[in-house]
Amino acid sequence: MTTGGLLEPRTAEGFGGAALARLRADFPILTRTVRGGRPLVYLDSGATSQKPRVVLDAEREFYERHNAAVHRGAHQLAEEATEAYEGARETIAAFLGADAGEVVLTRNGTEGLNLLAYAFSNAAAPGALDGTDPAWADRLRLRPGDEIVVTEMEHHANLVPWQELCRRTGATLRWIGVTDDGYLQDPSTVVGDRTRVVAVTHVSNVLGTLNDLGPRSSVIAAARRVGALVVVDACQSAPHLDITALTAPGSGVDALVLTGHKTLGPSGVGVLWARRGLLEAMPPFLTGGSMIELVRMEGSTWAPPPQKFEAGVPMAAQAVGLAAALDYLTELGMDRVHAHDQALVRHTLDVLAERPWVRVLGPAEPTDRVGAVAFVVDGVHPHDVGQVLDDAGVAVRTGHHCAWPLHRRLGVPASTRASFGVYTTPEEIDAFAAALDRVPQIFGVPA
């Protein structure tokens, strides 16, 4: 796999102009036109990223040369498919700085979070924790009055599963509030002695807020003080940051999820990473073939993790594609990927600041943001703003971005969001700003 010699030249912005042009050539979709021949300006990577050719080729090669059911069959194709699938797991683990035995492959980040949430409710079944390490077993038992803490900036995927878990178990859901400028409020006022889980996003998919989740951060410290499990939604940070610190020993993080389609990889594949002891203690979410150790008519026993959580024939081609995507990001260098993102965020905030009729949501400091800038034009619905941009060939996201409670907290029904990928250029931000200038002309907004 090659990224076209992108290691040089380097600049303070991550990639030099020529290097960025070569990078963009790896993404076939970026050459197409839209809306009557206009060049595509894709600023919706926070919803789904575009895929480099190496990812498309990896999936196609799997289907053309190795397609067979993984972990089944003794023939050569089955052996090759299994080797490719488990090799992908090793690559994903390396990207996370983790052990492959701690990596569960799922359909997406949402499934990973549901897997965790259902493990808590399944733990209440008679015998579900037999033979489990008592320390981990106790952490999985939820009782009425226990508390699960989330934040007010969560994507629905890291909110609704915990709401449902509370409904099933009698636990209470509490949340850390958000300030007017898009930061988390003091978690120590919410995390208490009955808190069993703290689930928090690393980067807000709306505000781009980068939450400090270091071992000494207020969130991690509050959770550690009461022995709560910490679950991190890393779906928005994984494409832009080195996240290996989250999985490191002593980080205070017990589990995290990411999703392939936001990380240059295919749709239909995601990752749940969790500490080995937690995976060994958790009851399975789905049952059936592949996740079993021994099956009798009277009952069954489970394979060790991660296989315990991968019932049925897995998404082998997608896993191979995700591994190719993560290899691509690794070759680019996550430090340079982050520097490139920071330059894009800063430039976007600068051009929007020149337009007083635009109100940016979230942190004003670029270094406190990753990957996205959401905004409103007072008096104009975000869907109308998005339509104006789309007419000019600029693709953005409009709506509540699967974060209704956050928008209610900020007092807006919806927002328009520009979000970035490794292939986004400063010139595309300029094109976005130029297209945005049509909004006051069309809707009579004082400019």
From TrEMBL:
Record GO biological process: cysteine metabolic process
Pfam annotation, one family: Aminotran_5
Cofactor(s) the protein needs: pyridoxal 5'-phosphate
InterPro entries assigned: Aminotrans_V_dom, Aminotrans_V_PyrdxlP_BS, Cys_dSase_SufS, PyrdxlP-dep_Trfase, PyrdxlP-dep_Trfase_major, PyrdxlP-dep_Trfase_small
Keyword terms of this UniProt record: Lyase, Pyridoxal phosphate, Transferase
Residue ranges of domain Aminotransferase class V in the record: 41-126, 142-432
Record PROSITE patterns: AA_TRANSFER_CLASS_5
EC id: 2.8.1.7
Catalytic activity: (sulfur carrier)-H + L-cysteine = (sulfur carrier)-SH + L-alanine
GO molecular function: cysteine desulfurase activity; lyase activity; pyridoxal phosphate binding
Gene3D superfamilies for the chain: Aspartate Aminotransferase, domain 1, Type I PLP-dependent aspartate aminotransferase-like (Major domain)
SUPFAM superfamilies named in the record: PLP-dependent transferases
Family: Belongs to the class-V pyridoxal-phosphate-dependent aminotransferase family. Csd subfamily.
Function text: Catalyzes the removal of elemental sulfur and selenium atoms from L-cysteine, L-cystine, L-selenocysteine, and L-selenocystine to produce L-alanine.
Protein's name in the database: Cysteine desulfurase
Provenance organism: Ornithinimicrobium cerasi
